[in-house]
């Protein structure tokens, strides 16, 4: 529980630093948007270079010289983040399976005809380990009930991610949707979102699978706590810069560099 204690203390410090200057808020929003969009594509195994992601987001349109579908997913993810932001400020509203379906529907609009709809067969590109599609609706109803009863916070966010990935209700896009759900719950509790980087991808996939197949959720929870700690460190560094006449970070520094990042893990 030591890392969770550190996280709660860092959140307290971050809360004390609010409201931050608008320039700091905008810089953080841009960095998280790029980091989270990159994470969406990474966890779904969609190839699009960081430079292309930046260009697509900056232009807000699909580039003719690149494959269209990955770019549409990146642009759709921006719309999903906008939905997440709106829902984050609706403190009285409940998060349910309709929220989850809405996230998926926005993510895969114009990409998958089943966007926002539960699967009735095996997962795409699956080797036979799909959870039973006949149980999807019952499992999602149970998840919805649990979400209604659960107070927002890191533990609830990571458990929601795990439960959704145990059901995998959509033909594709389950991991990206689970991250949106997880980050919505974190945001509602006043925490920054978690970002999965290229350096995290293999560990993330392995821990998600271990939690589902073996029922061992501790390694997954520990990984997600470290990712949350990294995001808090990024926010705290930005807040500290604001106190000494904020200077924007380098264009290529998103603050999500994996284990080598100065804010990763438990370092202050």
From TrEMBL:
Record region (Disordered): 248-268
Span of domain Fido: 95-226
Protein name listed in UniProt: Cell filamentation protein Fic
Biased composition, class Basic and acidic residues, residue ranges: 254-268
Pfam families the UniProt entry points to: Fic
PROSITE patterns, A to Z: FIDO (PS51459)
Residues flagged as site, Important for autoinhibition of adenylyltransferase activity: 44
Residue ranges of the TM segments: none
Keyword annotations: Plasmid
Top-rank lineage group of the source organism: Bacteria
């Amino acid at each position: 529980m030591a890392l969770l204690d550190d996280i709660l203390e860092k959140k307290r410090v971050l809360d004390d630093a609010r409201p931050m200057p608008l320039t700091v808020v905008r810089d953080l929003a841009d960095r998280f948007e790029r980091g989270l969009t990159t994470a969406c594509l990474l966890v779904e195994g969609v190839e699009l270079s960081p430079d292309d992601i930046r260009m697509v987001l900056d232009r807000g349109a699909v580039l003719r010289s690149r494959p269209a579908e990955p770019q549409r997913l990146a642009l759709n993810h921006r719309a999903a983040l906008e939905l997440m932001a709106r829902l984050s400020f609706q403190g009285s509203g409940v998060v349910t399976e309709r929220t989850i379906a809405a996230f998926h529907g926005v993510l895969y609009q114009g990409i998958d005809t089943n966007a926002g709809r539960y699967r009735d067969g095996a997962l795409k590109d699956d080797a036979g380990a799909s959870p039973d599609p006949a149980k999807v609706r019952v499992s999602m109803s149970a998840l919805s009930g649990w979400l209604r009863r659960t107070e927002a916070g890191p533990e609830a966010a990571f458990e929601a991610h795990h439960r959704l990935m145990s059901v995998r209700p959509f033909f594709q896009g389950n991991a990206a949707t689970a991250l949106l759900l997880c980050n919505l719950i974190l945001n509602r509790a006043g925490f920054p979102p978690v970002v999965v980087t290229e350096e995290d991808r293999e560990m993330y996939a392995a821990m998600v699978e271990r939690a589902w197949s073996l029922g061992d959720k501790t390694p997954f929870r520990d990984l997600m706590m470290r990712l949350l700690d990294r995001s808090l460190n990024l926010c705290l560094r930005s807040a500290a810069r604001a106190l000494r006449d904020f200077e924007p970070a380098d264009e290529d520094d998103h603050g999500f560099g994996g284990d080598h990042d100065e804010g990763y893990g438990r370092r202050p």
